[in-house]
Amino acid sequence: MTHPREEVRARLQTDRPHSARVWNYLLGGKDNYPVDSEAGEVILKTFPEFAAVARLQRRFLARAVRFLAGEAGVRQFLDIGTGLPTADNTHELAQRIAPESRIVYVDNDPLVLVHAQALLTSSTEGACAYVDADVRDPERILAEAAKTLDLSRPVALTMLGIMGQISDAERPADLVSTLMSALPPGSHLALSDGTNTNEALSTAVGVYNGQSANTYHLRSPQEIASFFAGLDLVEPGVVSTAAWRPDADRAEEDTADVSVCGVAVKK
Q: pTM for the whole thing?
């Protein structure tokens, strides 16, 4: 019988880059291996602005969660494709505004699992849980999330940079639809992903895909916008990551618009 720690160690695949670890490297983190930093440097050599893009997406998460917990009054969050813990994780952002917020994180990266305890430092009024699951298994995600969240009340589903991990053959729009269909009116979807509108980025992602344990699929802004089908978009709609409700007191970095994002509500 395989010990759980041995199973996690086997899943780490330290000989091949993993998306969460490469992303961690690009954000300046330390939770990565030499193979991940090497892949990150290859990406930066081909598309030097990629680290700035990673920071912009992280800032979109902060602005979206502040909107959801504040203006929209959402108190439950289902964060799929969590990534490695960093500053201002979803539960910290939400519980700063509403301490009673309940958050379920979902990821299937083994290193994220190792660090899951850092994600579970909830306020005493709220709750946090971590689910080791793949976005391709929405039924299991919903069943596990229901142990912490009340799925009869509005939930904010956040999916940042995760749909690019799903190929067209795996029907990414159906995965989003299955998840949102299980949530009640008043629930929101916050989603962002990389676009295929920049040749240098497309080249960098192609190089990454050639050596990584998982591939990334860039899509057109129109394809990404289609993931919000059946929902009512919150202003300003589907826009570049830097353009979604930017902070008035903080100028965004000047970088290529290679990712789009949006927030929508289920009526």
A: 0.86
Q: Give dist(CA 258, CA 109) in Å, integer.
A: 25
Residues 58-104: pLDDT tens digits?
A: 899 999 999 999 999 999 999 999 877 777 899 999 999 999 999 99
Report residues of the chain scoring pLDDT below 70.
1-13, 15, 18, 251-256
